[in-house]
């Protein structure tokens, strides 16, 4: 599937919501017809089941019994099981897009999704959206439900945050952008309180961000930020990297999965006021150990002394690509 909506429909088919014991069929037709016509069951006959049909209790037991042919595999999420049970109790939800209105957490991992499409707006109660390990390069914020609190996009191809920040979900608390294609310094301007007023957790790890000073100047506006991941970026190679962040963001609790203790914060006190220590350069020392398959330079030195004939000179070039 190319879109989130298509992947969700494929997921529903995998759950078998349209098939027995879920869905609409001969096993529950009288109950569905009664609800459709808004006619209540006669008093005292709520549990009466017509011949050839099954009660909701029996259908639920078929879903819950681990050895039942209709039971979900053990690796399925509790949310999937609850969704099937809700459909058994209220099969009329399968009409239209009413099922999507029940979903609060949606996880679509490694399904080849390339587009966050407009169909996502049908999830009117969605709070958590996990789209890791797909092929998403662009996220249009107008297609995201306003109720969203968690958005996880790690292991994708996101290289620009402009579309995501056009109309971002105002209540978002976690934004996961680790292992993407973000490059500095053009993206830092999208990481301010103007776009993310309630952000508590931000994952930017393993991108290509290089401007530590520029990034920190924007992150200081996020007054609710408590968890930050920046490891794996070139800017993390700067020697005073951790100390500068710890002192610059006094409300931060966890940096790169490591808790910030009061002793560490005291140790780096005042470092934020010394930006001259942040240099955009690094020195790398490479030591070459044993090399095989090359002539020994000492043999050529002996040849120059003992022989008057022509001398063969060899030179080698070692290239490091970063």
TrEMBL record:
Keyword Metal-binding in record: no
Keywords, in A-Z order: Leucine-rich repeat, Repeat
GO CC entries: cytoplasm
InterPro entries: Leu-rich_rpt (IPR001611), LRR_dom_sf (IPR032675)
Gene3D superfamilies reported for this sequence: Ribonuclease Inhibitor
Protein's recorded name: LRC43 protein
Biological source species: Quiscalus mexicanus (Great-tailed grackle)
Gene giving rise to this polypeptide: Lrrc43
């Amino acid at each position: 599937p190319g879109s989130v909506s298509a992947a969700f429909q494929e997921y529903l088919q995998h759950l078998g919501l349209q098939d027995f014991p879920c869905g609409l069929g001969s096993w529950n037709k009288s109950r569905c017809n009664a609800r459709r016509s808004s006619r209540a069951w006669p008093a005292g006959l709520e549990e009466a089941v017509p011949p050839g049909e099954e009660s909701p209790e029996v259908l639920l037991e078929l879903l819950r019994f681990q050895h039942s042919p209709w039971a979900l595999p053990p690796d399925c999420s509790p949310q999937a099981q609850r969704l099937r049970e809700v459909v058994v109790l209220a099969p009329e939800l399968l009409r239209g897009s009413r099922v999507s209105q029940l979903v609060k957490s949606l996880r679509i991992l490694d399904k080849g999704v390339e587009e966050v499409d407009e169909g996502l707006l049908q999830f009117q109660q969605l709070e958590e959206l996990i789209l890791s390990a797909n092929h998403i390069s662009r996220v249009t914020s107008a297609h995201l439900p306003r109720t969203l609190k968690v958005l996880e996009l790690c292991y994708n191809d996101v290289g620009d945050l402009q579309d995501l920040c056009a109309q971002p979900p105002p209540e978002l608390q976690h934004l996961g952008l680790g292992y993407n294609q973000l490059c500095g310094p053009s993206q830092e301007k999208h990481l301010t309180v103007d776009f993310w007023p309630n952000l508590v957790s931000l994952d930017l790890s393993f991108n290509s961000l290089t401007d530590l000073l520029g990034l920190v100047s924007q992150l200081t506006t996020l007054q609710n930020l408590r968890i930050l991941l920046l490891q794996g970026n070139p800017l993390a190679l700067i020697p005073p990297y951790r100390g500068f962040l710890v002192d610059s963001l006094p409300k931060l609790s966890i940096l790169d999965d490591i808790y910030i203790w009061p002793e560490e914060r005291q140790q780096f006190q005042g470092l934020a006021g010394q930006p001259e220590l942040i240099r955009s350069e690094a020195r790398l020392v490479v030591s070459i150990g044993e090399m095989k398959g090359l002539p020994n330079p000492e043999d050529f030195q002996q040849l120059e002394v003992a022989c008057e004939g022509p001398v063969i000179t060899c030179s080698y070039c070692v290239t490091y690509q970063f």
